[in-house]
Design a protein that fits this description.
By secondary structure, the protein is of the alpha/beta class. It is built from 14 helices and 24 strands. Helix 1 packs parallel to helix 2, helix 6 packs parallel to helix 7 and helix 8 runs parallel beside helix 12. The N and C termini lie close together (5 Å). It binds uridine-diphosphate-N-acetylglucosamine (UD1) and phosphoenolpyruvate. The site of phosphoenolpyruvate has 8 residues, from helix 12. It is found in: Cytoplasm. It comes from Pseudorhodoplanes sinuspersici. Pathway: Cell wall biogenesis; peptidoglycan biosynthesis.
Length: 420
C-alpha cells in the first residue's frame, strides 16, 4: 500500500485548483439511472470514488465514457435493475444512492445494507422511510434492502425527514422526479450538493422547487431526458487547502472556490486569525498573524461541516490556547485523535467533544489513515510537524482528493508518495 512521507516546515504559497465536488458527482452519477437518455457531467474530478461509482453503474448495464475536458458521459438506455452487492456498497456508502433511481425507473431494487464505518453507525432508515412514503414496499432481508413498487410507479407524498440527512434528501429527490403527482420533502438537507443535484435533475426535465431550503417540492414527470450539467467546486477540498494555508502561515489562492458555500468555515478561520477574500478566480487565503483558538460545533449545512472537523482539529492542535470541537453529525468521527497524539498533539476526548490544547511544535511520526478526512487531517499536521511524518493507508485520500500530493508540492510542500 502506498504511503506519504512529509517533511514539515514549509509555508504554502501559490495557487491550487479546486476540482468538482465528490459529494455532488456521486449522486449525479446515480441520477443517470433515471433516464433512458444520456447524461453528461462536466468538471468531474479524478477520484477513486468516481471510478467505484461508475463501476456500480456498470452492474446495471449503464455505459460510461470519459470525454475530453473532464466530461463523464453516462448512458442508461440499456440499463436494468440488478443487485448492488455488499462487496461494493460496503466500500463506498454513496453506492446506496442507486436505490431511489432504480425503484423509480424500474419498479424494483435490491441493494446491500452498507453497514457501519469508521466514522459512525450511519443507518439508512431515513432513505427507506422516504421510499416507503412514496409507496414502495421496502423490506430488509439477508442484509439486503429490497424495494418494489406496486404498479411500477411511485406515488407523490409528503416526506418528513426527522433530521436533514443529505443522502436521504437525495434519495427522496431522485425517486420523486418520476413519481405520479407532487412530493413535498420537509426538513430537507440544504447543502450546495443537494442544490446541484436538483439543478442536474432539472436539466434532465425534472420539476423541482425550493432546493436549498427546508421544503423541497417535486412535481413528478413521466420521463427524464438527455442533459448536460457542470458540477460545483468541492467546498470541502477548498476548505482543506484553506486550512493548509492557515496551518503553515502561507498564502494560497483557491481557484474556483466559492465563499458562499463555506461561510461558516470562513468565519471560523477568520476568528482563528486567517484572512480570506474573494478574487476573480476564487478565494485568497492568507495567514500572517499568530493563530487564535476557536471552538466549533459540526452541524448540518450551513453549519460547520463534519467533513472539515479533522482538518480544523489539526489546525487547533498547533494553535496557542484551548479549543473545543463538538461533533454532532457522526458520533464516531474521532479516529484521527490518537493518530494526531502520535505527532505530539494534546487532545482529550469526552463523548463527542474533543478538547484541544495547542502545542508549540508537533513532531513527525508514523501514523495510520483511517478514513478520508482523518487522513487529510494527518497530512495537514504533517505539513507543520518537525521532521518526517509517514502516513500509511493513503488509499483513503484518493477517494476524495484529486492529486493531493502534486497540488501540495506545487505550493512548496515537501511531500512524496512512496509506492509499497
Ligand atoms: C456522499 C456524500 O454526500 N457524503 C456526505 C453525506 O453523507 P450522508 O448522506 O451519509 O450523511 P447524512 O446527512 O445522511 O448523515 C447525517 C446523520 O444522519 C444519520 N442518518 C442518515 C441517514 C439515515 O437514514 N439515518 C440516519 O440516522 C447519519 O448516521 C448521520 O449521523 O453527508 C455527510 C454530512 O454532511 C457528509 O459527511 C458526507 O461526506
Ligand atoms: C464521509 C464522507 O464521505 P462518504 O459519505 O462518501 O463516506 C466524506 O466525504 O468525508
Amino acid at each position: 500500500m502506498d504511503r506519504l512521507v512529509i517533511r514539515g516546515g514549509n509555508k504554502l504559497e501559490g495557487s491550487v485548483e479546486v476540482h468538482g465536488a465528490k459529494n455532488a458527482v456521486l449522486p449525479q452519477i446515480a441520477a443517470a439511472l433515471l433516464s433512458s437518455e444520456p447524461l453528461e457531467l462536466s468538471n468531474v474530478p479524478d477520484l477513486s470514488d468516481v471510478t467505484s461509482m461508475v463501476n456500480v453503474m456498470q452492474e446495471f448495464g449503464v455505459s460510461a465514457s470519459h470525454l475530453p475536458g473532464r466530461v463523464l458521459r453516462l448512458d442508461a438506455g440499456q440499463a436494468r435493475s440488478a443487485d448492488a452487492p455488499y462487496e461494493i456498497v460496503r466500500r463506498m456508502r454513496a453506492s446506496m444512492l442507486v436505490l431511489g433511481p432504480l425503484v423509480a425507473r424500474f419498479g424494483a431494487a435490491r441493494v446491500s445494507l452498507p453497514g457501519g464505518c469508521a466514522i459512525g453507525a450511519r443507518p439508512v432508515d431515513l432513505h427507506l422511510k422516504a421510499l416507503a412514503a412514496l409507496g414502495a414496499d421496502v423490506d430488509v432481508e439477508g442484509g439486503y434492502i429490497i424495494a418494489k413498487t406496486p404498479g411500477h410507479r411511485l406515488q407523490g407524498a409528503r416526506i418528513v425527514l426527522s433530521s436533514p440527512s443529505v443522502g436521504a434528501t437525495e434519495t427522496a429527490l431522485m425517486a420523486a422526479t418520476l413519481a405520479r403527482g407532487e412530493t413535498e420533502i420537509i426538513n430537507a438537507a440544504r447543502d450546495p450538493e443537494v442544490c446541484d443535484l436538483a439543478l442536474c435533475l432539472t436539466a434532465m426535465g425534472a420539476r423541482i422547487e425550493g432546493a436549498g431550503t427546508h421544503r423541497v417540492v417535486v412535481s413528478g414527470v413521466d420521463n427524464l431526458h438527455r442533459a448536460r450539467h457542470e458540477l460545483i467546486a468541492d467546498r470541502i477540498e477548498a476548505g482543506t487547502y484553506a486550512i493548509a494555508a492557515a496551518i503553515t502561515g502561507g498564502h494560497l489562492e483557491l481557484l474556483n472556490a466559492h465563499l458562499e458555500h463555506m461561510a461558516t468555515v470562513g468565519a471560523a478561520l477568520e476568528q482563528a486569525g486567517v484572512q480570506i477574500w474573494p478574487t476573480d478566480r476564487g478565494l485568497m487565503i492568507s495567514r500572517d498573524e499568530p493563530l487564535r483558538a476557536v471552538d466549533i460545533v459540526t452541524e448540518p449545512y450551513p453549519g460547520f461541516p463534519t467533513d472539515l472537523q479533522a482538518q480544523f482539529m489539526a489546525l487547533m492542535a498547533v494553535t496557542p490556547g484551548a479549543s473545543m470541537l463538538r461533533e454532532t453529525v457522526f458520533e464516531g468521527r474521532f479516529m484521527h485523535v490518537p493518530e494526531l497524539a502520535r505527532l505530539g498533539a494534546n487532545i482529550s476526548l469526552q463523548g463527542t467533544t474533543a478538547f484541544v490544547r495547542g502545542v508549540e511544535q508537533l513532531r513527525g511520526a508514523e501514523v495510520m489513515a483511517t478514513d478520508l478526512r482523518a487522513s487529510v487531517g494527518l497530512v495537514l499536521a504533517g505539513l507543520v510537524a518537525e521532521g518526517e511524518t509517514v502516513i500509511h493507508r493513503i488509499y483513503h485520500l484518493d477517494r476524495g482528493y484529486e492529486a493531493l500530493d502534486r497540488k501540495l508540492i506545487q505550493c512548496g510542500a515537501d511531500i512524496r508518495r512512496v509506492a509499497a
